[in-house]
Specification:
Largest sheet: 8 strands, mixed
Shape: globular
Strand content: 15-25%
Helix content: 25-40%
Radius of gyration: 19 Å
Distance between the termini: 42 Å
Number of strands: 14
């Protein structure tokens, strides 16, 4: 599927790309009014139209000026919604900057930031400890299971995925455009980050991937034609339904291998020594950085053993 990098006119057709030279921000047109803005910390999905701009995720905030410049090149409408797919800093750090860009729309004090209730709880630390995020980054409104909005002639479905990457993950489906924003549940460049400390689990991760697979449509019965659901991960290249299925199967296989090792009484050290992900490491693994193959294996082991102890 398409990767970001080529320089093409802003008004191209599906799959054309735009690079803005004023900032390290790249834009990929997916549909006539749906884009991916990359380079801001996480992939940002942008929908435009007469009702305003809808953004899925806000990036880290470091490159918010470049993100805003890209948005303004594509639409002169204010930003109306910013939807957070998780509480990860590289997804919510730009909330305040993008929020302010919506000021004055329908006499609004700013854009409406939306996140799952668990996202607000983790960002605000309501039990009295110091909040890990300043208040201007918090979602202004939350939801529990799902939230539907209708803007720019399109139904947009916002759905919670419990206990996947974290306990507050959101997927966003642009129904008419057939574009699915997966957040960090899906990353075609690495093993999924299962953050057990923030409520993530391997079983929930696979369940969320199955939800994505069930929504995404392949271009059958003519698989050679252009079409089908476009899946935008939190990071990495825009993908198609078949790539999502392959990713789901990979995660499921590794889960099953580790589950079998646990049934045999193997310890975490023994499981890591057996290298249960080795068949997939060349494509998805890493030995350094924020998320390594070893960390992925540990997360699966801890997730499965925690479940069996209940």
């Amino acid at each position: 599927m398409a990767c970001l990098g080529a320089t093409l006119p802003a008004q191209g057709s599906r799959g054309q790309e735009v690079v803005f030279s004023s900032a390290p921000i790249e834009v990929l047109r997916l549909q006539p009014n749906v884009y991916v803005v990359a380079g801001g910390g996480s992939n940002i999905v942008m929908q435009t139209g007469p009702d305003g701009v809808v953004l899925v995720d806000a990036g880290s905030g470091v490159q918010s000026p470049g993100v805003l410049a890209a948005v303004k090149k594509l639409s002169d409408a204010p930003i109306r919604y910013v939807i957070d797919t998780s509480a990860d800093p590289d997804h919510v750090g730009g909330n305040a900057s993008l929020d302010r860009a919506g000021e004055g729309f329908d006499r609004s004090p700013g854009a409406m930031t939306v996140g799952h209730e668990r996202v607000l709880l983790r960002m605000s630390a309501p039990t009295g400890e110091k909040s890990p995020f300043p208040t201007d980054l918090w979602p202004k409104t939350t939801y529990l299971e799902k939230k539907d909005i209708y803007l720019n002639g399109e139904a947009i479905r916002i759905v919670h995925q419990p206990a996947a990457h974290t306990d507050g993950d959101t997927i966003v489906f642009f129904r008419r455009s057939d574009v699915l924003a997966a957040g960090d549940i899906f990353n075609p460049t690495r093993f999924p980050v299962v953050d057990v400390s923030r409520g993530g689990s391997i079983q929930g991760e696979i369940a969320a991937l199955n939800v994505l697979v069930n929504i995404a449509v392949t271009p059958t019965p003519l698989p050679w034609q252009e079409g089908g659901t476009l899946v935008v991960p939190g990071h990495g290249r825009v993908s198609e339904a078949a790539e999502l299925v392959e990713y789901r199967d990979m995660v499921t296989i590794i889960r099953d291998v580790i589950a079998d090792m646990i049934k045999k009484g193997m310890t975490l050290d023994q499981v890591k020594a057996a290298d249960p992900a080795k068949g997939f490491t060349p494509e998805y693994g890493a030995t350094s950085g924020p998320w390594t193959t070893t960390m992925f294996v540990e997360a699966i082991y801890k997730s499965l053993t925690a479940k069996t102890q209940r």
